[in-house]
Amino acid sequence: MMPSRMLIFAVWVLSALAVTGCTNTREGVSVLSVGKTLIDSRRSQREPTREIPDAVVQREIRRALNSSDGPFALMRIEGTGSVAVLRVIETNGPYSTWSAWGTSERRSVSTRGGVITSTRGLGTDLMSSSVNGLLGMLSRREDGITKQVLRHLDGENQIEETEAYCAFTPDQRQAYQAGALALQVTRVDVFCKTDTGTFDNYYLVSDSGRIVESRTWLGEGLGYFVLSHLR
User: Fold this and answer.
1) Which of 111, 107, 102 lies closest to 8 in space, CA to CA?
2) Domain residues of the chain, as ranges?
3) CA distance linking residue 48 with residue 97, whole number of Å
4) Of residues 17, 215, 48, the one with CA closest to residue 225
5) Among 3, 167, 174, 191, which one is least packed by beta carbons within 10 Å?
6) What pLDDT, on the 0 to 100 scale, is given for residue 155?
7) Looking at residue 201, what is its pLDDT?
């Protein structure tokens, strides 16, 4: 494998995320209020959310898009700085499984509607998820709350659940350009609170409701993944 390819496909991780319906509990309203305050504060001072790909990544993207007319995406793992161009290796109804393009690597992430639902082969896997509530909130692109459940394998190979109340706050429309895609999107910020801490995700949603990019926290052992669709 060439050094550039080794850079592109260096590291992988996996995740699962379960989502239930909206809640109007006092706890949920509190999360919404706190979430809006923090998100508004971050918006006023945040750096650009998408790094400009370096020459090696751009070259891999072009090679992938020229190799077939199928779907491709770019995955960035913030904790390690690793980058991979992904292609779909399997579909099962509304679910797509993605793995590194140009290799026989079987480490993978699965998505539904552009949202990561599970991972395999990365150690601290997120095992399964239901994203109906999350997808519904994103399709409406309006303020609201939903509860998410993240399920991981612990050190004893048992399923461990983390509940999070998450507040959704749409931002302004912006341009999205990556690979063969160029369109207008709405950014939706999501602030989540668990019993032990907080995390904040974002999703870029097109006018047709397609999620073309997401930054998602997948758990303590995995950190944040950014998935950017290229076609």
Assistant:
1) 102
2) 3-229
3) 29
4) 215
5) 3
6) 74
7) 94
Residues 32-54: pLDDT tens digits? 444 444 445 454 444 444 554 57
Query: pTM for this structure?
Result: 0.75
Residue 157 CB neighbours (<10 A): 6
Distance CA 219, CA 124 (A): 9
Q: Give 179-228 as a DSSP string.
A: TTEEEEEEEEEEEEE-SS-EEEEEEEEETTS-EEEEEEE--TTT-EEEEE
Question: Is 145 buried (19+), middle (13-18) or exposed (0-12) by CB count in 10 A?
Answer: buried
Q: CA 46 to CA 40: how far, in whole Å?
A: 10
Closest CA to 82 of 171, 27, 12: 12
Among 114, 162, 110, which Cα is nearest to 138's?
114
Asked if 83 and 58 touch (Cβ cutoff 8 Å), the reply is no
Give me the CATH code for the 3-229 domain, please: 2.40.360.10
Strands (E), the chain: 18-19, 72-77, 82-92, 95-100, 108-112, 115-120, 144-153, 159-178, 181-193, 198-206, 211-217, 224-229
Tokens 């997948």 appear where?
218
The two three-digit tokens of residue 128, written as one number: 């399964």
